[in-house]
Amino acid sequence: MPVDIYWRIHMEGDQPSLRRRVRSRGGFAPGGTAPGTRDGRDDGYTHADYMAEVARAAEESGFVGGLLPNFPHTDDPWAAAATLARETTSYRFMVAFQPGFLHPVQAARMTATLQRATGGRIVYNVISGGGGPAQLWWGDKVDHDDRYARTSEFLDVLKGVWQGGHTHHGRFYQVEDAGLPEELAGQPFPEIFFSGSSPAAIDAAGRHADYYLSWLEPFEALAEKFDAVRAHSATPPRFAVRVDLLARESEEEAWEEIRQGWQARPRGGDSGGGSGGGDSVGVRRSRSFLAEAGDDPRALEVAPNVWGGFGQLRDGPAFGLVGDYHQVAERLDQFLDLGVDAFILAGIPHLEEARRVGRHVLPLLKGRTS
C-alpha cells in the first residue's frame, strides 16, 4: 500500500535554523517578526505568503500535503487552508482542531465548503487538548477523559450530519434532523488522523481513526502503543508518525548542526512537547524516555539516529531523526516495517528543509510513497 507523506506547515512562525531559537519568519507569537519587516516597516510580504511558499515547495518536492497545527498563538488552520488552497493543485490540508471548541454541525458545513472548493483536499487531525493553561486559554475546563468522550460524540454527530437528517440527544450535543444543504452534500468525508496516548484516547481512536497518529518514540514503545490501539479496535486503523528530520550529506555534518544548536540553546527550556502544567500523556511519555544529557547532546540518542533533544532547539515534540540521507531513510523504512502507513515530517527551516528532504531522502525510501 502506498505511504502518504505530509510536510508540516509552520503556523507558529519559523526559525532560521536549529542553531538559532528565534522566530524570524512569520507568526505572531511574542518575539516573532514578519518576514517582510524592513527597518521596522512591513514591506507587504506576509506570513500567509511564506506559508504559501512552503506549501508549494512541499507539493513540488513530492509531499502529498501538510499538517496545519492549531495553537492559541497561531493563525486559524481552517482559514489558512482556505487561503492556501489556490496556491496549490493537489496538496492536501490536514486541519488540526479540537472538537470542544466547535459545534459538529458548523464543522460539517465548514468542511463541506472546503471540500467543494478544493476538490476534496481536506484531512482532519483531531486533537482533544493537553489540559493545563493552554486548555483554559480556550475556556475549556472539561477533564481529560471527558474530553475524549466529547470528541467521540462530536465525531458521531458530525458523521451523522454529513449523511443528513440526523437527530442526536447526547451528553454534549443535541441536534434535530440536522444535515447539509443540498449544494454541499455528497462531498467525500475527510480522513481522520487521531492523536492521543492515554487509554481514553486509544479507545476513542479505535472507534473513529482512519490513522492513529503518534509522535515519534523509541521503536519498542511505539510498537507497544500500536498494539494497544489494535486491541481496542474492531477494525484497526492505519498508523502515522510525526517526525522531525535533520538529514545531511554526511552523518558528521548532521551532528555538527545539532552540536551548534545545543551550545546556543536557551538553558532551562522545555524538553519537548510543549509547556508544562498540562495533563498530556504523550508529553509525559516522551519525557520518560530521556535522561539528563549534560553538555553532551549525543546522550539523548536513545537508538541509532533517534534523538530526543529537538524540544530544546525548537517548540514541539522531543524526538526526531538525525543522520545522513541514507541513515534517515533507513530509519523511516524501519517504521514502515513496523506498520506505519503515513508520516508527518518536519524540519527547520520548513521551506529549505522541505526541498532538501524531498530531493535527498524521499527518493531513498523503498518506492512505497504515494
From TrEMBL:
Q: What is its EC number?
A: 1.14.14.5
Keyword check for Flavoprotein, yes or no. yes
Q: Which UniProt keywords apply?
A: Flavoprotein, FMN, Monooxygenase, Oxidoreductase
Query: Highest taxon of the source?
Result: Bacteria
Region Disordered, as annotated, extends over: 22-44, 257-281
Note whether Chloroplast occurs among the keywords. no
All residue ranges annotated as the Luciferase-like domain in the record: 36-341
Native organism is Nonomuraea angiospora
Q: Which InterPro entries match?
A: Luciferase-like_dom, Luciferase-like_sf, SsuD_RutA_monooxygenase
| Protein's name according to its UniProt entry | Alkanesulfonate monooxygenase
Compositional bias annotation for Gly residues? 269-280
Pfam families annotated for this entry?
Answer: Bac_luciferase
GO MF, one term, reads: alkanesulfonate monooxygenase activity
